Description:
Blueprint: E1 7-14, H1 19-27, E2 30-36, E3 43-48, H2 49-58, E4 69-72, E5 78-88, E6 95-102, E7 109-118, H3 124-127, E8 130-134, E9 138-143, E10 152-155, E11 164-166, E12 177-178, E13 185-191
Parallel strand pairs: 1-4, 2-6, 7-10
Antiparallel strand pairs: 1-3, 2-3, 4-5, 5-6, 7-9, 8-13, 9-12, 11-13
Amino acid sequence: MDERKDLEIQISERSTKSKSEAKQLRRNNQIPLCIYSNGKEADTASCGLVEFQAILRELNPGFLPTTVFSLKGSKGKARRAIIKDIQYKPTTYEVLHLDFLELHDNVPVDVKVPIECVNSMDCQGVKLGGFLRSLIRHLKVRCLPRNIPSHFQIDVKELGLNQNRRVSDLSIPKDVRPLVKPNEIIVSVLKK
């Protein structure tokens, strides 16, 4: 398991959940957010839009669901969390709202882990005139927070025409449980 550092975000707690307050926050370059924890009512807060956009630019595409954040409030207490939902403005993709799920060491979480195809340029089937088609880009798994994989890799170099790789072909640690059937196809090489 790779050792990853939590990404730190400064948050400001807020007491109300009104739409007018959320609009005011957005006008002030803040993102309204909710933090869900163990079935309790969500805590509301906000974080800086510019700060969050900078974090998004640094992340590999597709890795946001497995990124663990350290949410630091004004009281100095940090809460570890992952993003469960993100709402964008449809026209500009500006982030409008974030939903975080607080992580607790002994409570399993469901996470969408990105799947990365390696050696796609050297794929035998592609060299024979086929093309790679990814059917699953993220694999939903259940595990404890300390076992969240950053991503899975699948080697497609040896794939020929009309061949595929399945979930069962992934190297999945024993303490991570996939929430799909092992025979689900991840990637195929198809004829053009």
